[in-house]
Structure formats: C-alpha cells, structure tokens
Amino acid sequence: MDHPYFTCTEIRPGVYAAIAKEGMEAIGNAGFIDLGEETLVFDTLSLPQAAAVLRTEAEERTGNRVKYTVNSHYHSDHTNGNQIFKDTVIISTAKTKAEMAGSLISESAPVQGLDLMDLAVGIMEETLPTLLIEDKLVLEGKTRSAELYHFGCAHSCSDLFLYLPVEKILFAGDLVLADRHAWMGCGRPEEWITVLDRMAPFKIEAIVPGHGPVGGPETIQKTQDYIRELMDHVMNLKIKGRTPDEILAAPMPKKLSGLARHSVYERNVRFLFEYAESGVLGCRLPV
Ligand SMILES: [Zn+2]
Q: What is the pTM of this model?
C-alpha cells in the first residue's frame, strides 16, 4: 500500500518492507515482521507522525500487536518514531541507547532539505531502548524466528541488523545502502568493510537497506566497493598533497558519479581526509 511517507511491500508472506519515499519526511527505511502471535518493527522512521502510520500498517497487516521494536542504530532518521512504540520492548545495543540519550532530534534538521523540527516541535518524547543486546539475540516467535546481530563498528559503532534464516531476508539498517552515497563519518570505514565480510556466510535472497529500494545480496558487495573506492580516491590524492577542497574539485571516481545524495560525497571526502590524519570520527549530521 502507498502512504505519504513510505511504500509498504510484502517481500515474503508476513515480512514487510516500508521504503521511505524520496523527499518525504520518513527519510529512513523500516520494516515489520509477523512472528506469529506478535509483530516486530525494525526501525521507527524520522518522525512520530510517520511512525504512527507504520504501526497502524504493521498491526492491520499482521493482525498482531507490535511487541518488539528494533533500533538498528542511533541516527534520528531511524529512531525519531520510537515514542509511538513506547509500550513495546525496544531493542538496541547499549551504545545506541547511550548515543540517543539527551540527543532528541537535535541533529535531525535540516536533513535532505527537510526541516523536521517544524513538524516535530512540541510532540517529541525521548523514548529509549529497554532491552540491550551485545552481539546476538534470537526472538523465537510462534511461526518464525528473527535473529539480531551486532558485529562492531561500521556505519556507526552500534549497528544492529536483523536476519530471518528461513526466509533468507536481511534488514540491514544503514550497514547496506542501495545506489547512494553512504555516510561514513559516524563509524569506521575500514571496519565497516570487515563487518560486511562477516555477512558472507548468511544465505541471503533479499536485503532491506537503510535507504533506497529492496535489493539482493549483491548490495553488500556494492556497499563495500563504494567504501573502498572512495577511501582509495581520497588517500591517493591526499598523498599527492591535495587539500580537501582540491579533492572535491577533482573529478569524482566514475563508479560513484551516478549515486544519489551527492551532498554526502562532500561530507565523506572531508571526513576521510581528517580521519586519515587523526583517526577522529567526523559525526555531525546523522544520515
Ligand atoms: Zn545512519
């Protein structure tokens, strides 16, 4: 079904992707899964109003109340809708919870040209995770089980992903991004590649990325290629003595030139330049 914020599609019976519409306020993707007698929601979009539509859709489609809500990582475009799920068990890593505490929508506006503060002002309630996992949690439902994994520092230092072993579907959060520049500055790019390597043993037929359309297992490789390509590009020019502005003035590597969200390219170049010098993360605007 089509909504103002996202397009909801049933990937497999009982497994749904909510793909954010470009230019609208949901910004991040989400999903929901019928576990049998209860429903799990993966990520809560960028705005409570959008999350309310997501919850209604999830409960109508599955016929079950939402029992579990997962925050893939702390970025506000994946967590600002948490208050709609405050009566559920909200699951994240400890680091995600710590990053969220006290940072309510403070860095979410403007994102992608949208002033979310206008839409969210006066209605936002800090709603933090209540169940913290370290590296793995299995939720056994009546009809299917869902596995949650944390493999370390990658897009952020707290990314969770969800895997359905029978359906072979992976909800990746921002660990995997389809056809767009992937923000690196809140995590560790070289470790991100390693984390994606660790997904290799998983049998995967479909991936719901953090942004962009549902893809196949090849989107993991594409995300790795993106990270490697851009790291190499910045390092090669930095070694030649180029400044960040000069690197940005140089032609973008061909493989990257067709990707969406060009503004992230500039931020990544500036981040990678600084990161190479200091090892300091450049997290500013969450995406
Ligand atoms: Zn993110």
A: 0.92
pLDDT in tens, 240-280: 999 999 999 999 998 898 888 888 999 999 999 998 888 77
Domains of the chain by residue range: 6-278
Q: How far is the CA of 266 from the centre of ligand 1 (A)?
A: 16
- Tell me how far the alpha carbon of residue 154 lies from the centroid of ligand 1, in angstroms: 10
Find out if CATH 3.30.70.1660 is the number for domain 6-278: no
Position 286 pLDDT exceeds 90: no
User: Ligand 1: distance of its center to the CA of 175 in Å?
Assistant: 8
Q: SS3 letters for the chain? A: CECCCEEEEEEECCEEEEEECCCCCCCCCEEEEECCCCEEEECCCCCHHHHHHHHHHHHHHHCCCEEEEECCCCCHHHHCCHHHHCCCEEEEEHHHHHHHCCCCCCCCCCECCECHHHHHCCCCCCCCCCEEECCEEEEECCCCEEEEECCCCCCCCCCCEEEECCCCEEEEECCCCCCECCCCCCCCHHHHHHHHHCCCCCCCCEEEECCCCCECCHHHHHHHHHHHHHHHHHHHHHHCCCCHHHHHHCCCCHHHCCCECHHHHHHHHHHHHHHHHHCCCCCCCCC
Tell how far the Cα of 84 is from the centroid of ligand 1, in angstroms: 20
